[in-house]
User: Which sequence fits this backbone?
């Protein structure tokens, strides 16, 4: 029985490349020359630290811009509220969302079911497996999911015949 998986993934290598480009730009930017700024990438989060709120804003704009240019879908990057200390140091966390979480997965499954496609969809290990008897039904589901915005990046893989 043909099937495919709906996934929501961020390419870790592209994130790493984008952050390396951002670090290079920060080193050459005149307005950030003497500022103590830092970008730390740890698994599923990015920490931005700077001397003050203005430098943090510039740092965030550079990082988000580089991520966008490298093709990283920004719907999977959650920007946490910046923390600014009383002495002026500022820090912000950017959380990288990998996989489909419970509410978003249920929303996608319900949307597929409401359209009346002759397929079955179920959540398996943070991805949605869609199975059907005909390839045409599966392709119609792919077109439907591509056409709607669920608030997360959606991708398709493991198309089996």
Assistant:
């Amino acid at each position: 029985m043909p099937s495919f998986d709906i996934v929501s993934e961020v390419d870790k290598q592209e994130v790493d490349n984008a952050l390396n480009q951002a670090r290079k730009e920060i080193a050459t930017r005149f307005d950030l020359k003497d500022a103590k700024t830092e970008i730390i990438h740890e698994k599923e989060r990015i920490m931005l630290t700077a001397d003050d709120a203005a430098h943090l804003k510039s740092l965030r704009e550079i990082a988000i811009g580089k991520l966008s240019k490298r093709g990283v879908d920004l719907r999977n990057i959650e920007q946490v509220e910046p923390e600014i200390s009383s002495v002026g140091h500022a820090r912000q966390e950017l959380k990288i969302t990998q996989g489909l979480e419970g509410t978003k997965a249920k929303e996608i499954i319900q949307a597929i079911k409401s359209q009346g496609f002759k397929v079955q969809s179920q959540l398996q290990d943070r991805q949605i497996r869609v199975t059907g008897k005909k390839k045409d039904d599966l392709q119609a589901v792919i077109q439907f999911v591509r056409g709607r915005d669920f608030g997360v990046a959606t991708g398709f893989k493991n198309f089996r015949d």
User: Anything to note?
Assistant: The chain has two domains: 3-8+99-160, 12-96. Residues 12-96 form a domain with the Alpha-Beta Plaits fold (CATH 3.30.70.990). The chain has four helices and nine strands.
